């Protein structure tokens, strides 16, 4: 007997037609926050944001102004001069274009691979699926360091050093993504929906595109945001695979920071330009990203 | 739930499943694997595992192979088999022990306060709040900042002459600190960067777990006369234990691999982690061995050692967690 | 339109010793409305899913019309299914939901539109064709699920507890509508429910299952009048039939010191084993009498048109009742006795069922 028929009183409360996210929002404590709570939170928020604000301040000053006492706390007019100098020191414009390409490709590829594999692990029964899933989870423990030497030899032999595909391809492997999509689809995709598609005559592929992907869309969006962020900020492998001739933002920033005579204003200007795109995205989509991380946390 | 394979041959071509001998159809009980077994599963996981095999598994094993050889970055084909020579050399290398010590202290300095603060923050965020989303997004901003950007900014903030932190210290009557050159101070500074980037993220993870705790547990505790602090200790923390373990494991894995922060903190692109290697971590040491000294075999041995350290530490956590769980039963 | 035949169809789930459905034999006529009913875990849904092709058949076979579909995938069986939770595609409109199967089958767009419009008209869904399932009430979703099945004009409708997510009032309404619709369309229908009232009101015939075994398959009237065994007797009818086992005495069975008369020939066939017999009588087949089986009234339920007495057999020092069952008795609401009173029961003419105490099978 299926669980469906043996426990109608359980399934009855959650009609399959609306696979609502089952996150509990009701478990909110009634207690309102006191003044102390607010003070602490404002302080934390300040500490979280201040270094970024200070980046903008420092980027808009001359070095002489920065060295003054007391230090300046308001942005100034030298911002564009400093950015211009940073652009001369390091190819920040090229780096941003490269980062967009790299992070974009990684995001599309990762979300696709993860949704396919996550669906298979969540809903398809095939020989060895548990073992393979265990392998995926185990992969999350493996440090990046373990792969980079052979990868470096590989891309050297393929003459891919300084080519973007050298960064994109290895980074497409996201065990987290597979696991994340699996967790989401196990809950959000009712078996009956797949059975209905089967009875309706849909092939497995058709079912995937017409039924699974639409249901998975919210999780795919969250995964895309997180993947893009991670890819944009990725440091270790890009700094090995790329040089400052054709850098991503992080590689360019590392080059900027590693200059012979540290020029604070210029470094901060470069940091600002390289960080601003993600911060803008983050401020716009912040709510969704927060929701995504919390959702992943409960399921994971 | 399964989906019938529409054409197993297609799927089989994409990823050959282990061959199943066709069972003879007996009258008593026929085996019809066709309806519930789905070979399409292999096709769906194939893209991931092909990439995984090419860019994770193969390098993983090849690193093991390299770690048993003397390989120079300048002469990749001239590998000489040295057995466990790289490992024994590593264990006798004072740089290795120094880096291991640094990794441990920075790991503790960054992980323990980070998770403790995150837990407290999550508790605060769990109250009914005005501007909930604002606080959450603000606390996640550091997570969105890259290691490179964060480290460059903090390197300036921790600067000796013009750094804001020293200016602040001086303003309240302390001496300026040369953060970079001191052993403890540099490690504290690096831990601050790590803590800054990850505290908000972990707070959100804890918050999500706290919100999943059924409210009636708190109601029952209130009826039993438990104070808010008692509720936090006796209801929240036990319910959060799996999540806490999860964050500890993730933070530990991150701490063992710590690389970008110490690399960029020096401000000169050097891989030695300070003049007296006072903040050289294992990740940095490995990079130093491979890409500064061109000794890939040695670097591979360090990488595998790091992985073994992670396995041991995670294994110990698992044992402790299991023992605790058993003790409570 | 077609007949459906289960021929010793068996399903054994992996890692389970006991078959979920054990050698099911069932012939369903063309255009017939057959209800599969039984308690949780009896195998009714599994049977339906075997017919749908969602569950393997480990032994035996299933035919639709003359065609053996035992190994056919669902799409080749020409069936349509209504799921308990409706399983509507959440991202598609009502129209797209209903037309999805046709679209996959490559039916021309204009024909899809016509057929969807027809079904929508029948089900009174015309105003909702552009909506997503989320924007519909439970009853509307249920109708969309029905519509999705109707649009395909299949040979067989399969319905898996399609009403269990509706509230009680809507369920009663919808039940009548589905039954009427099925008669109008004349499509062979297999309907699963755990609710015996639903089964009795809707089915041309009702198949009662328990533990994967078919107990009885017959018209609702016959199931009620002549239950094949004590399980069916207790399962069909509400309140349930009173079933008691007691020692055989001359002319009947002794209950609480009194003798309940049982026809001689049936008594003889039942008494083969240890001198006991199982008898059953429905609450409405009993009347209060000056003489008869004494019972003590525990609770009186006044329903307006009827009153039900919940009673236990009266005191008896010889302990002759083997199952000290609680009894339910229907009486006239005005003359209902008070709680605590002892009354005497007599079974009306033709109201007594006799069962073998060991095999539990009916004896005529």
From TrEMBL, chain A:
CDD domains: TM_PBP2. GO terms for cellular component: plasma membrane. The keyword Secreted does not apply. Its main location: membrane. The keyword Cell membrane applies. Residues 1-10 have a biased composition (Polar residues). Keywords: Cell membrane, Membrane, Transmembrane, Transmembrane helix, Transport. One of its GO terms (biological process) is transmembrane transport. It is a multi-pass membrane protein. InterPro entries: MetI-like, MetI-like_sf. Residues 1-30 are annotated as: Disordered. Signal peptide: none annotated. It is found in: Cell membrane. Residues 11-20 have a biased composition (Low complexity). The chain crosses the membrane at residues 33-54, 92-120, 132-158, 164-181, 208-232, 265-285. Residues 96-285 form the ABC transmembrane type-1 domain. Belongs to the binding-protein-dependent transport system permease family. This is Cellobiose ABC transporter membrane protein. It comes from Geodermatophilus nigrescens.
TrEMBL record, chain B:
PROSITE patterns: ABC_TM1. GO terms for cellular component: plasma membrane. Keywords: Cell membrane, Membrane, Transmembrane, Transmembrane helix, Transport. It holds the Pfam family BPD_transp_1. It is a multi-pass membrane protein. Residues 15-24 have a biased composition (Pro residues). GO terms for biological process: transmembrane transport. The chain crosses the membrane at residues 40-61, 104-125, 137-158, 188-209, 239-260, 301-320. Residues 100-317 form the ABC transmembrane type-1 domain. It is found in: Cell membrane. Residues 1-28 are annotated as: Disordered. It comes from the Bacteria. Belongs to the binding-protein-dependent transport system permease family. This is Cellobiose ABC transporter membrane protein.
From TrEMBL, chain C:
It comes from the Bacteria. Residues 4-236 form the ABC transporter domain. Pfam families: ABC_tran, OB_MalK. SUPFAM superfamilies: MOP-like, P-loop containing nucleoside triphosphate hydrolases. Gene3D superfamilies: 2.40.50.100, Nucleic acid-binding proteins, P-loop containing nucleotide triphosphate hydrolases. GO terms for cellular component: ATP-binding cassette (ABC) transporter complex, substrate-binding subunit-containing. InterPro entries: AAA+_ATPase (IPR003593), ABC_transporter-like_ATP-bd (IPR003439), ABC_transporter-like_CS (IPR017871), ABC_transpr_MalK-like (IPR015855), ABC_transpr_MalK/UgpC-like (IPR047641), Mo/tungstate-bd_C_term_dom (IPR008995), NA-bd_OB-fold (IPR012340), OB_MalK-like (IPR040582). Keywords: ATP-binding, Nucleotide-binding, Transport. GO terms for biological process: carbohydrate transport. GO terms for molecular function: ABC-type transporter activity; ATP binding; ATP hydrolysis activity. NCBIfam families: PRK11650.1. This is Carbohydrate ABC transporter ATP-binding protein, CUT1 family.
């Amino acid at each position: 007997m299926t669980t469906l028929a043996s426990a109608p009183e359980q399934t009855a409360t959650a009609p399959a037609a609306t696979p609502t996210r089952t996150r509990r929002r009701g478990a909110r404590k009634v207690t309102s926050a006191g003044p102390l709570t607010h003070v602490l939170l404002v302080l934390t928020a300040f500490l979280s944001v201040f270094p970024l604000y200070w980046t903008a301040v420092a980027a808009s000053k001359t070095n002489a102004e920065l060295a003054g006492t007391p230090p300046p706390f308001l942005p100034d007019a030298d911002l564009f001069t400093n950015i211009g100098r940073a652009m001369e020191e390091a190819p920040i414009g090229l780096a941003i274009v490269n980062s967009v390409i790299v992070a974009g490709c990684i995001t599309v590829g990762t979300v696709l691979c993860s949704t396919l594999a996550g669906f298979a692990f969540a809903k398809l029964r095939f020989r060895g699926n548990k073992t393979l899933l265990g392998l995926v989870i185990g992969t999350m423990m493996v440090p990046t360091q373990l792969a980079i030497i052979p990868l470096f030899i590989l891309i050297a032999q393929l003459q891919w050093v300084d080519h973007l595909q050298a960064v994109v391809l290895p980074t497409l492997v996201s065990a987290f993504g597979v696991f994340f999509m699996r967790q989401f689809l196990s809950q959000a995709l009712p078996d009956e929906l797949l059975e209905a598609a089967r009875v309706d005559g849909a092939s497995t592929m058709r079912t995937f595109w017409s039924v699974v992907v639409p249901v998975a869309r919210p999780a795919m969006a969250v995964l895309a945001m997180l993947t893009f962020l991670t890819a944009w900020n990725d440091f270790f492998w890009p700094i090995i695979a790329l040089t400052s001739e054709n850098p991503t933002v992080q590689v360019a920033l590392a080059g900027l920071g590693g200059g012979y005579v540290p020029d604070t204003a210029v470094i901060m200007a470069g940091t600002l330009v390289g960080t601003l795109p993600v911060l803008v995205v983050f401020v716009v989509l912040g709510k969704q990203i927060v929701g995504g991380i919390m959702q992943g946390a409960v399921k994971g | 739930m399964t989906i019938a394979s529409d054409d197993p041959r297609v799927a089989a071509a994409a990823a050959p499943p282990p061959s199943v001998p066709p069972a003879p159809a007996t009258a008593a009980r026929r085996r019809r694997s066709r309806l519930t077994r789905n070979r399409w599963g292999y096709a769906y996981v194939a893209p991931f595992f092909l990439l995984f095999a090419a860019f994770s598994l193969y390098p993983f094993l090849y690193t093991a192979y390299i770690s048993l050889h003397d390989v120079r970055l300048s002469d990749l084909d001239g590998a000489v088999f040295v057995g466990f020579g790289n490992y024994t050399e590593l264990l006798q290398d004072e740089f290795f022990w120094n880096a291991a010590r640094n990794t441990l202290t920075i790991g503790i300095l960054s992980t323990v306060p980070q998770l403790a603060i995150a837990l407290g923050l999550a508790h605060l965020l769990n109250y009914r709040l005005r501007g909930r989303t604002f606080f959450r997004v603000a606390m996640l901003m550091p997570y969105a900042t890259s290691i490179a950007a964060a480290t460059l900014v903090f390197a300036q903030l921790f600067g000796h002459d013009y750094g804001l932190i020293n200016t602040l210290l001086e303003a309240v009557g302390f001496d300026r600190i040369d953060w970079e050159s001191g052993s403890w101070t540099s490690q504290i500074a690096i831990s601050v960067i790590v803590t800054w980037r990850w505290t908000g993220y972990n707070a959100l993870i804890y918050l999500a777990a706290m919100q999943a705790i059924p409210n009636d547990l708190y109601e029952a505790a209130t009826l039993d006369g438990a104070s808010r602090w008692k509720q936090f200790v006796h209801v929240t923390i036990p319910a959060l234990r799996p999540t806490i373990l999860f964050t500890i494991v993730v933070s530990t894995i991150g701490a063992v691999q710590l690389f970008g922060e110490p690399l960029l903190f020096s401000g000169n692109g050097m891989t030695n982690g300070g003049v007296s290697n006072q903040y050289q971590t294992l990740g940095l040491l490995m990079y130093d061995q491979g890409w500064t000294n061109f000794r890939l075999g040695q670097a591979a041995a360090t990488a595998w050692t790091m992985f073994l350290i992670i396995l041991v530490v995670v294994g110990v956590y698992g044992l402790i967690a299991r023992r605790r769980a058993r003790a409570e039963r | 339109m077609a007949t459906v035949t289960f021929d010793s169809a068996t399903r054994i789930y992996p890692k389970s010793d006991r078959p979920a459905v054990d050698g099911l034999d069932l012939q369903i006529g063309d255009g017939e409305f057959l209800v599969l009913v039984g308690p949780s875990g009896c195998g009714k849904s599994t049977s339906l899913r075997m017919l749908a092709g969602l569950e393997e058949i480990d032994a035996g076979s299933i035919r639709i019309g003359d065609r053996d579909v035992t190994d056919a995938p669902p799409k080749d069986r020409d069936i349509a299914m209504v799921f308990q939770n409706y399983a509507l595609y959440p991202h598609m409109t009502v129209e797209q939901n209903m037309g999805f199967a046709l679209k996959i089958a490559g039916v021309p767009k204009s024909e899809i539109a016509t057929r969807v419009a027809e079904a929508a008209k029948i089900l009174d869904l015309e105003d909702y064709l552009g909506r997503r399932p989320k924007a519909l009430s439970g009853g509307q979703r249920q109708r969309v699920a029905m519509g999705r099945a109707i649009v395909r004009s299949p040979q067989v409708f399969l319905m898996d507890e399609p009403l269990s997510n509706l509230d009680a009032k809507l369920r009663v309404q919808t039940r009548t509508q589905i039954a009427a619709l099925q008669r109008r369309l004349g499509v062979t229908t297999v309907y699963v429910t755990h609710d015996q009232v639903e089964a009795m009101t809707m089915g041309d015939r009702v198949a009662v299952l328990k533990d994967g075994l078919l107990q009885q398959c017959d018209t609702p009237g016959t199931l009620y009048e002549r239950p094949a065994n004590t399980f069916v007797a207790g399962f069909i009818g509400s309140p349930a039939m009173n079933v008691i086992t007691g020692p055989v005495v001359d002319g009947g069975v002794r209950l609480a010191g009194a003798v309940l008369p049982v026809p001689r020939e049936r008594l003889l066939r039942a008494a083969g084993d240890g001198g006991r017999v199982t008898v059953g009588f429905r609450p409405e087949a009993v009347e209060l009498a000056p003489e008869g089986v004494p019972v003590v009234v525990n609770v009186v339920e006044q329903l307006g048109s009827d009153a039900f007495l919940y009673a236990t057999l009266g005191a008896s020092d010889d302990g002759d009742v083997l199952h000290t069952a609680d009894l339910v008795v229907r009486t006239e609401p005005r003359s209902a006795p008070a709680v605590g009173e002892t009354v005497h029961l007599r079974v009306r003419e033709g109201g007594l069922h006799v069962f073998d105490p060991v095999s539990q099978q009916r004896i005529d």
